[in-house]
Design a protein that fits this description.
- This protein has helices at 10-19, 36-45, 52-57, 68-76, 110-117, 132-136, 154-166, 180-196, 248-254; strands spanning 2-6, 25-29, 48-50, 61-64, 85-88, 93-96, 99-102, 122-125, 146-151, 170-175, 221-225, 232-236, 241-245, 257-264, 269-271, 276-280, 285-290, 296-301, 306-314.
- The chain folds into two domains: 2-196, NAD(P)-binding Rossmann-like Domain (Rossmann fold); 221-336, Beta Complex (Metal Binding Protein, Guanine Nucleotide Exchange Factor, Chain A), CATH 2.170.150.
- It is elongated, with a radius of gyration of 32 Å.
- By secondary structure, the chain is α/β, with parallel strands linked by helices.
- The protein has an eight-stranded mixed beta sheet, with helices on both faces.
Length: 342
Amino acid sequence: MKIAIIGTGNVGSAIARGLAGKGHAVMLGARDPGTEGVTRLAAETGARPAAPRAAAEAADVVLLALPWAAAATAIADLGPLAGKVVIDCMNPLGMVDGALGLMIGHSTSGAERVQSLLPQARVVKTLNQVGAEVMARNAHLPHRPVQFMAGDDGAAKAMAADLLRDLGFDPLDAGGLTKARLLEPLAMVWINQAILRGKGRDWAFAAVQGTPREERTMSDTLHASCHCGLVQIDLPAAAAGVLACHCGDCQKMHGNFNAFLAAPIADITLTGGEALVWYQSSEASRRAFCGTCGARVLKEVTAAGRWLVSAGLVDGPTGKRIVRNLWEQSRPDWYDLPQVSA
């Protein structure tokens, strides 16, 4: 791909270094291509120095890496760039109320201003959300850094995405060019953390994808144990239902609701029952806990002839299970069982 980088400051130089050796024909558009700094950068990266207009006219993709205050004049000197992909790496920064901030936003963006100056070009906003150092080098980061893109031309964004991958970024499409109104403030988040909050410049945003959760099937038999493992309980899933008990005893002992699996006593297999200590909690029920580890394991509803097997505590208002769970699975099979009444 033929690429013109307009501007050889920190960002332009970093992009040139990041693209070095990636198979692109890179030109450095500089007001004075013969200066020592430009010549040295060209020798380091294999890029070719040129005047900005000549570089832009010869390129398939033009990257604008200019100070915002100089952008309008520099863009006017490039010509119409009709049909070319123009990647706007700039942020419309300036002093606002005595501090560095965005000069425009909310109802427009710097990228939209660029598009208005180059109405025949295909403008894509990206490479504005991180410092120059990470554009030049980011393979050492623990996660692949993300760069969002905004633009109205799908083919132009596809070309920009290829360049982002070559620079080590994970490209994500943010939508049309108006979404640059979101991406330019994101740069201020990076600047705030890097400079004002002392995080430093060697970091970037990343999109960390979660792994898909496996499909779960209900086991025919549910298994539980106390914390020390002396008491083991098995019950058929077909006979079980989930009950959230909020009796005074549960409130007193647990401070919130207690979730139980309810099943007829005859359907439950109890191993290690000799370790249980039973006590009468009310006229209608009694409870058992493990005499070794103290885990409250069972509640027997006398009239109903069933046991309620403790399945962990839940928070009353939300129903979210919040403390250690007797059940062995991180997301137990009983999670999807129907709720039953006492």
